[in-house]
Amino acid sequence: MSGRVTAIDVNQKDPRIMFVGTASGGVWRSTDRGTSWKPVFDKQKVMSIGSIAIDQHNPDIIWVGTGEGDPRNSVSSGYGLYRSLDGGDTWHLMGLEKTRNIYRIIVSPDNSNVVYVGAIGSPWGASVHRGLYRTMDGGKTWQKILYVNDQTGVADMVMDPTNPKKIFVAMWQYHRWPWFFKSGGPGSGLYVTDDGGNHFRKITAKDGFPKGELGRIGVAVAASNPKVVYALVESKKNGLYRSEDGGKTWKLRTTKNMGGRPFYFSNIYVDPKNENNVYTLFTRVNKSIDGGKTFQRLIGRNIHPDHHAWWISPVNPKFMMDGNDGGLAITYDQGKTWRYVQNLPVGQFYHVNVDNDLPYHVFGGMQDNGSWRGPGYVWARGGIVNSYWQNLMGGDGFDVVPDPSSDRYCYAMWQEGHIGRVDLKTGYVKNIRPVLQNGKLLRCNWNTAISADPFDKNGLYFGSQFLFHTTDHGNSWQIISPDLSTNDTTKQKQAQSGGLTYDATGAENYTTITAIGPSPVKKGIIWAGTDDGNVQLTKDSGKHWENTVRKMKGLPEGSWTAQIDPSTYHAGEAFVVMNNYRQHDFYPYLYHTTNYGKSWENMVSKDNIFGYCLSFVQDPVEPKLMFLGTSSGLYVSIDSGKTWTHWTKNFPAGVPARDMVIQPREADLVVATFGRSIFILDDIRPLRELAAQGTDLLDDSIHAFTPPVAYEVSWRGEPGVFAGGASYFHGQNKPMGALLSFSVNAGVKKPVPGNKANTGQMKHPENMHSKPKSPPAKKVTIKVIDENGRVVRTLSTVPKAGINRVNWRLDRKGYRFPGSPKPKKHANETGGGGYVIPGTYKLVFSYMGHSDSTSLTVKSDPRQNISAEAMKANYALVQPVLKKLQSLAEAVDRLKESKKTMQMVNKLLPQNKPEGFADFKKLCKITSDTIKAINDDIFPPKNVQGLYSNPKLVMSKLQNAYGIIFEKEPLNTTQKLVLKQSDHIISSMLQRIDNFYKNQWAAYKKAAESMNLSPFHKEGEK
Length: 1022
Known about the structure:
1022 residues, mainly beta, five-stranded mixed sheet, 5 helices
């Protein structure tokens, strides 16, 4: 469950340090040979990575080119070239923003200031910013040193490892339209320079290259023998060519088994120790051991298919790394065995949905990684691990819709509208894709639109060029619309797509429905948007349709309908996400109507939004709260879209936010990112309150937000592993217990005495003129008060200005065990004193003399039949024992203080040994021995070598009682007996200690005082 890896580089001086770039998930660094990974590019504007180059002379310098270089229909764009000077910790934009997609970077091994950057350019439009760039001053200035035309960019580039002045550059003319792809043209060709880029020579048919128009070319130079150069050439007949004179002349080696989709895969690599070992990357990875004459499969289905990045150690060719559509794999035996990296969360989700289970599930489909269902959170330890996720269907995964009629089923889809009803219990998939009765072609988009019917639990909508509706889970379908697209036949030639090499996979299917939005407010109102620019509306369940797109002022013709979000408040209101980047227009479009499309307003502009729009959701409770997903991150508005704020808290700044949904019961925002898998923002209620009341709310000294219901649940262990280590993926889980949110004002001051506005907050007005003994603690305290007015828990935290959140584990104030250290002054209260009873609790938030309050509902575990009465009865039995345990802890503290007092007395003994000295020394020993005997019966000896356990010790006997503190079900006979025995043990020990102080300690104290040895005020007795 990972995603496309597009670039790899390794620190050759320290191979433990690795960097990988991903198609739209940023840059990741490992410092332990790929065991664990950390994202290091999350603050940048874009997350699509085309190339990575470490300066091997100074590995702290890393160059990253943004914008992936394999231009499939879901290609992501970049925003220039970045450099790090500190090993990837921080990054600086070095220019070339308009190149959009940078596919190759080479740092000169002779001079770190000389860097070559190959811009393949955006596939969606012509641009003069394509070509090869060079800097001679470390990136301060750039010179374009190779340019062919505005449709031709750098598809590959390699340097002769023995001659930094000699560089091969593959130029590729190509263009992608929403409805077609063409690879090849007069601009394509392989160039070579022998003087570091000052002059280039084009390799032609006279040199042995194929005649006619060329397409994409991959090139590789053998490090062990640089005269051997390979070129994977797309032409009228694709073939692998080899030169044995450094690129002067070429010969065809083979046309078989070296790859079949050059637009998407055109990479070739040579073993650095053997010029005859050649690797080609495509759907599989094939290897030749005879210099490219024949190829055999190296990687089949044992590793995810579709391979885009490859790295071979220059000193140990058995050590290789492979980047593919499913993530990253590493081999140390030249491909015999591979280790798949399981902890790179860079999945590219197209859609996301949720159900209403408790805990709820998340559904979604990923680019080339199928469709899945997994938990939004788990009531288990260890976080959300991969094994929780259930694979629903294969292929490219798209929209997944939970079946509203039964939580056992969902609808899942793969490309071109292949849809099935999935039995989540058995895994059985029933194909329900509709078929036209007259045999006419059904045009379904690569990412076909489906939507549940909000008024029929058995209903579903499906889009091709027509809108289909079913009322029986897809067993039968009815067409409820005419062709809603433009039906432009000039843009329906997908069977011819590809250019020199056919690539008719359905990815360019066009004039189709891509978004369906049935109104949840009024039955019969349905919106349908197409990929070719139509936004259609019916008010009568499909009998009549109106195209409203012409009312969208400023929208370019043919823009793509990405999403339609009908309002949950008003029947005539809807939000439509449009984008036009597929026609080289990266402007944001989010249109809003309140009158059934009679007029529209674009709610965004390039002045307040970076990137184009992908998704939108309006909060179903507070209409002013809105979320917008763009190609470069997540935005939030609390004023109905008048202003937008880029959300970067625990969320990558530049990741595409492809789809969003709000879980209605828990108010969680679930975001499907196209490159970083799923993110969940737990509990957006604070944002709702901000939207409803305005940002003036944040001016309050302290404000308590209404918390969500908290469940007092039992937690399981994580499945399938006890301790998975650093390579095991653990997704962050929702914290156990209650999420408590509040805001504080950074400029808040302690209330001024006598200020009437604050009088009600002064607990002791009679002391308001007294000088405080110490400055007020800059902590927020949260008192949890039960229905009887008792404070059951006090939480404390040091806040930051603005909204804060703390987690309460639904526990009571803890009881200190004997021997544990006393809490320090101003220390936070410890918990662990057992669970609170389900019910309603008052929460009082206090800060710098100001306070606010709210209430919290605590519910019991819905999976267990546990009553509040049973928990109350348990607490009534446990509490007396806990109080006695606290008394024992205090008694042990007193013994410890008494021991210190005796040590001080001994230091005060005179040297001349006065009368009674010997008797006093005997009394000292008896007293000390008694304290030791009591401690020895309670605690195990210190500094014991090995494992030590003595069941006769008091602490050993009390261990069984501790777990009963957290028991929810009615205590059984055994547990009650344990409590009774524990009560007796504690009582006996307390009596023993009390007898000691009444007898031996009193005698010792009297004797010490008679000798004028009386430091007992140090002991802390009252």
